[in-house]
Amino acid sequence: MKKLVVLFLLPLLFSCESDPSQSFIPDDFVGSWQCKETSTLYGQSTYDVQAVLAAPSDGLMINNFYNNQLDVRVLVNGSGWEIPLQTVDGFTIQGSGQSNGDATEVSVSYSVDDGVDNDQCSAIFVKQ
Questions:
Q1: How far is Cα 121 from Cα 68, in angstroms, rounded to an integer?
Q2: Residue 45 · residue 34 · CB < 8 Å
Q3: Domain hosting residue 34, numbered range
Q4: Is 60 domain-assigned?
Q5: Cβ neighbours of 46 (radius 10 Å)
Q6: Contact present, 101 and 84 (Cβ < 8 Å)
Q7: I want to staple 106 with a disulfide (CB 3.0 to 4.6 A). Which of 24, 56, 100, 125 is the partner?
Q8: Domain total in the chain
Q9: Which of 71, 95, 72, 70 is nearest to 82 (CA)?
Q10: Are residues 66 and 93 in contact, defined by beta-carbon separation less than 8 angstroms?
Q11: Does residue 10 form part of some domain?
Q12: Is pLDDT above 90 for 6?
């Protein structure tokens, strides 16, 4: 009987799958990131951004967003980023993204509207 119990519990001991409900805090994302962006207006580009803590307590400020020196507020929620609707220097921005399992890469989709054109973007942010 003991062997049967051990055989039943053995797979539970060696289960190594990561938890898809991983939750991060803003501190996990602070630092330098490389952004690989694809824009419907400008094609592909790669540039650096900086993530710093910002109020409220679940917030970050991404400096040089859209490779245009924009400081954009991002909320960290669970394992994702939410870019709430905001207007920064005449650009209206909104979007969201999802982090990988260890907060070193975030895939983000967002729109940037300058009042003339509405650019749809997707980007991979990779922590440096």
A1: 14
A2: no
A3: 24-127
A4: yes
A5: 12
A6: no
A7: 125
A8: 1
A9: 95
A10: yes
A11: no
A12: no
**Residue 34 corresponds to which tokens in the numbers above?**
């490389």
Instruction: Write out pLDDT tens, residues 69-128.
Output: 999 999 999 999 999 999 999 999 999 999 998 999 999 999 999 999 999 999 999 999
The pLDDT value recorded for residue 21 is 59
For 120, half-sphere exposure in the C-beta direction (CA atoms, 13 angstrom radius) is: 1
For the chain, how many residues are written?
A: 128
Distance of CA 16 to the CA centre of its chain: 24
Using the CB atoms, write b or e for 106-115: b if 16+ within 10 Å: bebebbbeee
* 3-class secondary-structure state, position 6: helix
Q: What is the pLDDT of residues 17-59, one digit of tens each?
A: 444 457 999 999 999 999 999 999 999 999 999 999 998 788 9
DSSP E strand boundaries for the chain = 31-39, 43-54, 59-65, 70-77, 80-88, 91-99, 105-113, 118-127
